[in-house]
Amino acid sequence: MFEKIKHLEFIAAQQQRSYAELPLVYACSGCSSAAQMANALAVRLDREHLAEMSCIAGIGGDVQPLVRAAQRGRKILALDGCLLHCVRNCLKRYDIEPSYHLELADHGIKKRHHTDATEEEIKRVWDEAVIPALIEIDNL
User: What is the CATH number of domain 2-138?
Assistant: First the structure.
């Protein structure tokens, strides 16, 4: 119960900040259920005003305005769906180390093709991993 209250208080505080004060979030968005789950979590963070989503494909594709945004020193949450670590590797090309790297496989998420993650999986990872990761980033 204490953790839930802590999470709600943190969320309320984050939502009062400007986007420029929030961490950037980059997510995998490949074809597997794990990749699409990472993307969905990042979109939710952005839409709920908890982080500002940016484009990892732009980093990998050397799109300079997006690269410069990543290099500005903001805190970064990297969401990777699987062991390939595409997000982390795209950032590494520019010597950018995320403040927190969250790999969904570490939280029991299996990489499946031609299907989506379940709502239960998404909710569990949101509560058990994503919000705690943001809290940890905020304390850096």
Answer: 3.40.50
